[in-house]
Amino acid sequence: MTSTLQTPSTQDQRTYQVNTFGCQMNVHDSERISGLLADAGLAAVAPEAGEGEADVVVFNTCAVRENADNKLYGHLGLLKQEKERRPGLQIAVGGCLAQKDRDTILKRAPWVDVVFGTHNIGSLPVLLERARHNNEAQLEILESLDVFPSTLPTKRESHASGWVSISVGCNNTCTFCIVPSLRGKEKDRRPGDILAEIQALVDDGAIEVTLLGQNVNSYGVEFGDREAFSKLLRACGEIDGLERVRFTSPHPAMFTDDVIEAMAETHNVMPQLHMPLQSGSDKVLKEMRRSYRSKKFLGILDRVRERMPHAAISTDLIVGFPGETEEDFQDTLRVVEESRFSTAFTFQYSARPGTPAASYEDQIPKAVVQERFERLTALQDRIAKEENAKQLGRTVEVLVADSAGRKSGSTGRLSGRTRDQRLLHFSVPAGAAQPRPGDAVTVPVTEVGAFHLVSDPSPEQYSVRATRAGDAWDRAQADSCGVPAPGAAQGTRGVSLGMPTLRAGV
Ligand code: SF4
After folding, report:
1. Where in the numbering of this chain does the TRAM domain appear (predicted)?
2. CB 419 within 8 A of CB 310
3. Which atom of ligand 1 is nearest to the CA of 249?
4. Which of 47, 199, 313, 457 has the fewest CB atoms below 10 angstroms from its CB?
5. CB within 8 A of 386, min separation 6: which ones?
């Protein structure tokens, strides 16, 4: 779970906190929720605030992961006492679990004030106000989208990066997935609206965008253009100041060569691809109702690597789908070995109520799933480390992250992502310029692990490039506390002083 936490409030301003469970789609929706609440005059609680300290606490839930409901009710249970102590506290529950469970949430936790679904995020401020005014819980779930999420105000978590929804919903029917029934059929946003939103993000200082959809490469299905996604990637290449373009998630079944060509030929589309495999067994893929087979999947990776030899490819895998035999599992191990993924998100199958696979017989015993999971993660960890080892000695450009990350506390290193999305921790040589979050640092890779790279460069090996995202970070610092950003004025190696520029109306 992540919390969206920004600037502290003035004394009498109501505050909010958004707690996010689940996928990137939810993280993006949470940014919209924060934007709506900020627009309604609320301020985010201070980063150090605990859960329940805000006046409005929002849970943006996920129905995909195991125990999602237990987790939610655990959090709600903890807030019950706080609500008794402080009746002004408002609690809202949105996201996939709310869309699925609806009034069950109010039955199990009657102290909740608002339940809203995935299609009506924009109603949240009104529902909160109505709940307060009528002193009665509000439940509003829509079956389909009334306002495309990206037309709502957004409060971004990072100055350097932004998410842009290109589509919502999914026309596939994977038997393990609850998304189609919760998010509905695919709805595509108009290309002009998407590009306008990207331009607005860039104007606001972002240098990286991730295009978001349940199935990005089927983008265009609604308006009948089979090459709409590759055209969109190429159009991103025309946006001045946009340095890094990523997308998630594509689907292997509809992944066509025009997308590979667009990736290879568009300067700011990053050499990185997340391509969900799920299983290496053709029999299991058929049972999952995923219409590609392992041969097609491997063919896609070959063609991507032919055009982008250094592309880092990651994946999603499910272990222990109903009916998976040891032979099927061996197929997964074989395809994983051949695929050479840089990272894999590996899940143990667990039946999600409401999905077709939940009612399949031959569910696999937990102990068998666990044992296969351990073999698969051991294999993938070895591959990840071997693939990372190929990075040793390479010079890479890192986009410095907003938060230095857990590691930095003990080592003093800063963190960021390389162009191919690998996590890299780096030290700043003594006397060299400190980069600001959002600046770009160029360093050699000096050490590797399975999940990250490390760089301890000499002064000659280290350089910093000031970016507009770093400038935006400076401005935000100045806006929130009235003093120039620390670090920006230190050192002399190519980092602009980043004097804060106060924008009218900010
Ligand atoms: S492609 Fe399959 S897994 Fe992905 S959202 Fe659609 S139904 Fe779910």
Report:
1. 389-459
2. no
3. 4
4. 47
5. none
